[in-house]
Amino acid sequence: MNQAEVREFFDGWATYEAILDQEAMHHTAFFAAAASALARDLGARPLAVLDLGCGSAHHAARLLHGRPITAYAGYDLSATALAAARTSLTAAGIRADLRAEDLRQGLEGPPDSVDLILCSYALHHLETAGKGAALAAARRRLRPGGRMLLIDLAREAAETRAVTTEAYASWVEREWTFLPTEAHREIRAHVLAHDFPEDDATLLRLARETGWAEPERLARERWHRAWWLRPGD
Ligand SMILES: C[S@@+](CC[C@H](N)C(=O)[O-])C[C@H]1O[C@@H](n2cnc3c(N)ncnc32)[C@H](O)[C@@H]1O
Question: Which residues line ligand 1 (CB under 6 A)?
Fold first, then answer.
């Protein structure tokens, strides 16, 4: 991953804000499914939250609003996104520790210290080994009984990364007509250079190998997935 290029892309946050507004990546539906899983599994438990690649934390803030949040740490490369995160989280009454750092820094914190890890559309910027290392570190950071929400892009097992990223970029150009041509050009360049979606089987294997129980798939829309992870026995 070229950090500077990823940061530069997301510093143009207006494009991503439009994607969120249009529900083009299914955030509202996926976070609604996560809210049900969270209520089911963690009830009213006070939560120390780690948000990896938090972006504007728009949906995270809505998910956590009204819950007892003992700590929220958000990591993102983009200072523009973090400024928006500050606004979303403050409006939800959440005191946040926001860091303009690589999400892997957030995973280096103390073990057994977090109740909920959020990682929405950020992990696919890492290559396969990096995803495995991140999942292992996330597992170490989680307290017993904690959970991880992993929302991300996926590819079909039969397709190469090049085929999937080309198909995704073309789909964006066809379907996301609310964006100007220049934004389509930037998204295509970003997707082809920096997106590394895994197929479902690889992601499940990485989770198993790093100490998680079989992930629960909460939702699926074409290339988009929401997974709910709990520690393995
Ligand atoms: C597609 S946005 C998702 C933002 C938010 N989680 C959401 O779902 O709306 C991806 C975010 O991950 C951040 N990001 C990508 N790679 C990262 C890394 N290695 N460390 C920290 N943040 C990263 C980007 O800056 C961007 O804000």
Answer: 6, 10, 16, 53-55, 75-78, 81, 102-103, 120-122, 125
Q: Which band of pLDDT confidence, cut at 50, 70 and 90, is reported for residue 65?
A: very high
Domains and CATH numbers, the chain: 3-161+198-229 (3.40.50.150)
pLDDT digits (tens, 9 = 90+) for 148-168: 999 999 999 999 999 999 999
Could you identify the atom of ligand 1 that is nearest to the CA of residue 11? 25
SS3 147: strand
The crossing angle, in degrees rounded to 10, of helices 181-194 and 13-21 is 100
Q: Which residues contact 148 (CB under 8 A, 6 or more apart)?
A: 116, 117, 118, 119, 138, 142, 212, 228, 229, 230
The answer to whether the predicted template modeling score (pTM) of the entire model surpasses 0.90 is: yes
* Dist. CA 184 → ligand 1 center (Å): 18
Of 213 and 3, the structure prediction assigns the larger pLDDT to: 213
Q: Higher model confidence: residue 11 or residue 64? A: 64
- Check: CB of residue 200 under 8 Å from CB of residue 28: no
Compute, in angstroms, the gap from residue 55 CA to the centroid of ligand 1.
5
Q: Tell the residue nearest (CA) to atom 8 of ligand 1.
A: 120
Over residues 84-142, the pLDDT tens digits come to: 999 999 999 999 999 999 999 999 999 999 999 999 999 999 999 999 999 999 999 99
